Design the sequence.
């Protein structure tokens, strides 16, 4: 097994630049190389509507201050190009749905309208449909996470849960601690409320607790209050690693000792290739944990059903915030999800998803071994959707992207997953969606781009530059 790249994975890496170098703050789209911006704009709009013609300045005075840092994420910008049929996209995090029995879902949808139409097509309560919450508690129980239906609030996917969490907890300038790298949608949600993300480095065992403790001390010494730690402890997006059992205990101890809230985001916990389950932080420190679940990766992302499990006082505020955001979750999709979970073999579907992902992961790993030049490293995932690849020293994944797109393969540059714009030497490769054959083809194309770049560098600067 190859190891992680040494630089950004060391628990002793230098402090995040965002605190010391505000000029390096993440600016999303503006950090995408100009050539790619132009390429993407041309593909999206046709050559006659280029970026420069969109007159943002005439609206600027109307925008709220908190929107200043907002820009389309690199991933969104990429989709325009990556979704073209000739491109093998190793960029998106969409689950393959071929294992899902669409006829069965169609029958359930018909039953929902025929038998419960007057509820399904009506407004519902802010906390979510009670029978669905019972089922979601069963899903958590299947993973060994304790929960009662009354403790849950249904949300529009895990993404809305992240938005509501930041809305509940963050004032402008508050510090949020997060793994480095972190899920890009969480970074967007936190920055929308003007929180400042401070990363805590990870290695193959997940986030480093000793560095977390040191960072907490530094934040408090500067007179600021860390609002919460955001973590994806199982098969993390984007790094593909899981927090070790020992470190879970250590995080729980730190949370209890330091009065630190933990936001435990868990879309991938049931997708371990061997079906292994890990101890949830919610099990260890329930009174300090905001747990976020979702049906997106184990049933369907289109149904947009996620949930929050949180202690009473937080839960009451979440219900108020949910009502202020959209009154209530769609009853139609809640009732459909409820029927799915109460009548179908959803555990069997999860096993089919796991098997499919393991096959895809194997295809990616064997091709990476065959194709990638000396100096590249990557993790071996035990579940989830992602491989985190480190390029040979000196290469930058964002600079390489236009060349990769020309070679008809897409990935997400690592810098998208750091609030401070670091991580340039990494890229996230997703194996969740394309077929194994397409994955192999995509990695062959990527390997050729990276090898050509490595040869060019050797020719220009010598082999030991
Ligand atoms: C770590 C993580 N959290 C949350 C989400 C949001 O998922 P959804 O809103 O579909 O539940 C994703 C989606 O990729 C994710 O990877």
Sequence:
């Amino acid at each position: 097994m190859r190891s992680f790249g040494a630089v950004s994975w060391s628990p002793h890496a230098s402090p995040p630049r965002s605190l010391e170098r505000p000029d390096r703050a993440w600016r999303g789209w503006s950090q995408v190389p100009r050539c790619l911006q132009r390429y993407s704009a041309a593909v999206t709009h046709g050559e006659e509507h280029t970026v420069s013609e969109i007159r943002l300045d005439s609206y600027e005075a109307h925008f709220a201050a908190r929107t200043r840092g907002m820009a389309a994420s690199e991933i969104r910008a990429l989709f325009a190009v990556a979704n073209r049929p000739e491109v093998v996209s190793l960029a998106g995090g969409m689950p393959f749905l071929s294992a899902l029995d669409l006829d069965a879902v169609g029958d359930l949808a018909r039953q929902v309208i025929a038998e419960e139409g007057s509820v399904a097509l009506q407004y519902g309560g802010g906390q979510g449909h009670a029978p669905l919450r019972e089922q979601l508690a069963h899903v958590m129980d299947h993973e060994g996470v304790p929960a009662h239906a009354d403790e849950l609030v249904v949300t529009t996917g895990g993404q809305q849960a992240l938005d509501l969490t930041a809305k509940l907890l963050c004032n402008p300038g508050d510090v949020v601690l997060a793994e480095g790298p972190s899920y890009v949608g969480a970074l967007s949600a936190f920055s929308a409320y003007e929180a400042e993300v401070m990363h805590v480095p990870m290695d193959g065992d997940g986030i480093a607790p000793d560095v977390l403790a040191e960072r907490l001390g530094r934040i408090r010494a500067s007179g600021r209050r860390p609002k919460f730690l955001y973590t994806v402890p199982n098969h993390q997006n984007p790094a593909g690693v899981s927090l070790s059992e020992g470190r879970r205990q250590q995080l729980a101890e730190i949370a209890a000792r330091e009065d630190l809230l933990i936001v435990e985001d868990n879309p991938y916990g049931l997708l371990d290739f061997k079906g292994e389950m890990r101890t949830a932080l919610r099990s260890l420190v329930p009174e300090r944990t905001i747990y976020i679940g979702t049906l997106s990766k184990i049933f369907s992302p289109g149904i947009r059903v996620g949930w929050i499990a949180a202690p009473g006082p937080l839960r009451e505020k979440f219900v108020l915030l949910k009502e202020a955001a959209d009154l209530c979750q769609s009853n139609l999709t809640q009732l459909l999800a409820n029927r799915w979970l109460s009548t179908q073999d959803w555990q069997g579907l999860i096993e089919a998803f796991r098997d499919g992902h393991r096959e895809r992961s194997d295809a990616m790993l064997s091709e990476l071994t065959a194709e990638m030049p000396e100096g590249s490293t990557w993790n071996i995932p035990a579940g989830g959707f992602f491989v985190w690849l480190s390029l040979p020293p000196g290469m930058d994944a964002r600079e390489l992207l236009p060349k990769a797109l020309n070679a008809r393969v897409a990935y997400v540059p690592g810098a998208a997953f750091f609030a401070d714009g670091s991580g340039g030497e990494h890229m996230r490769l997703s194996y969740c969606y394309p077929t194994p054959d397409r994955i192999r083809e995509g990695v062959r194309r990527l390997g050729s781009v990276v090898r050509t770049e490595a040869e060019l560098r050797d020719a220009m600067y010598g082999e030991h530059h």
